[in-house]
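Section 3.1: Structural characterization of target chains.
Under the original work plan, the team committed to producing a structural model for every single-chain target entering the pipeline before any wet-lab resources were allocated. The record below documents one such target. The sequence was received from the expression subgroup and is listed exactly as submitted; it comprises 600 residues.
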Amino acid sequence: MPNNIHTERLAALRAELAAQGLDGFVIPISDEHMSEYVGAYAQRLEWLTGFGGSAGTAVVLRDRAAIFVDGRYTLQVRDQVDGALYEYQNVPAISPAAWLGAHAPQGARIGYDAWLHGRPWARAVEKALEPRGATLAAVDRNPVDAVWDDQPERSLAPAAPHSTALAGVGSEAKRAAVAEWLGERGADAAVIAALDSVAWLLNMRGTDVSRTPVALSFVVAHADGTADLFIAPEKVTPELRAHLGNAVRIQPREAFVPALGALAGRKVVVDPERSVAAIFEALSGAQIIEERDPCVLPKAIKNPVEQAGHRAAQARDGAAVTRFLHWLSVEAPKGTVTEISAAEALHQFRRECGDLRDLSFDTISGAGPNGAIVHYRVSEETNRALDPSSVYLVDSGGQYPDGTTDITRTVWVGPGAAPDEVRDRFTRVLKGHIAIARAVFPAGTNGSQLDTLARQYLWAAGLDYAHGTGHGVGSFLSVHEGPQRIAKSSGGQAGTGQELLAGMFLSNEPGYYKTGAYGIRIENLVLVEERAMDGAEGAYFGFETLTHVPIERALVDDRLLTRDEVAWWNAYHARVESIIAPQLSGEALDWLKEQCKPLG
């Protein structure tokens, strides 16, 4: 896939590295807030390499380069990145640090942007470089920015209040809880760098990052309940100023580093997972306490108002997705629907359902073999028709003021019956999905302890999938939210050790992917809730399923389902019909009722 643009950009970067006296440079997908999804100005990896995934890193040396992605992107990276320019490397089998330790020239000076990497990452790379006599050097100016002539500016869109009627708890109460948390640790302040934490703490939202309603800003929260907000002045409206009140001091973003320097001699909490290395450097005179951002856990435990709002958002979103699936059942067998036109149609159905602010991520619309690319993003170059007698996977979600949704459905595009193999794989995925949905577990259980429940039926056939089973979800915030998740435990992987607590939202999304053929995923969102049990010794929890959209009947081999699994299916679809049917009419309503008929 030779691409002259990316060849030229790589050459320009290497010339800039030479001018800065560097032998190499590391380019992550990241911003100053360690965000998963970043603004256009921070899409350095995509600009340089063409890779459009949400997680990845490139390392550029003078005579070779490599791009590192995890199992979600092993197919996508080969479609988008020129293998003649970059070696493909799989994480966690090898890390950028390990690769540099093996390939950095003796005595090399490897550059990195301290505003884009965490301190633990920097320390790991420094250690890996030591045997080669090489060093890691923080750059004064990012060399990618130096050669990116038309790099977008940071967004100056106004930030907006998020009302207590939607948030459930006011900002003053949240800041008071953080102040109490700081007092328990004898700390004076906490640096809040993660954009969703800033948004949660101040009940503030924005439009600076596509698909995530946050505003570019930092906060320093103090032990007296006050806070300093560092944000571009152009983003501050009179409404926001009134919403924040006098206890939140608003300062320009440029004042952030000097303010950190002014904390010299104080005890300051900094989250090493959510704060870049440059923040630690700016706090060199302070006594730093490395601990998790105090907003992370309370943000993950949704209050009753947030839970109710999410259910309302899910009901509207479920109706939109159901209308789309009905439309697809009519149009797709004609062979005229493409991945792009399907994604656009789904977006339109969501717009029509009311108060959609954005999608929660770029819709994954994968026909046939493209569905096997876990985080596939359709483009004009890759756009495929939904061929009759094929599998189509669509993973999508919406951002509404009262909730963030995320749902995956896999459908069979008729006419005719699906092959036995496809039905077998789909049903094994369904069994795993039901196992998670029906799980009951004691207090203290973490996500990695549940993950096997979803995989067991695939494992029994020698199959698996290369992604987690569930991630946390925000409340009109990030669609991927920590600290909770359901996934294999892997070397202390973030979130797998977090116990699941009542009020947490998670996805339930096992899958199966046959390279070059098709992909299958079934995803609903669930809420951790307390579960009363006669004779239980201690507290127990289970899941309330929050997503209500029919699951594809044509792909189910009910001979593989147990009586309890059939009962779950029937109860789930009865609930779907009760919630969605009142919002539909005509042929869409008839289709829904047909899809929700009991199995067996």
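The CA atoms of residues 320 and 348 lie 9 Å apart.
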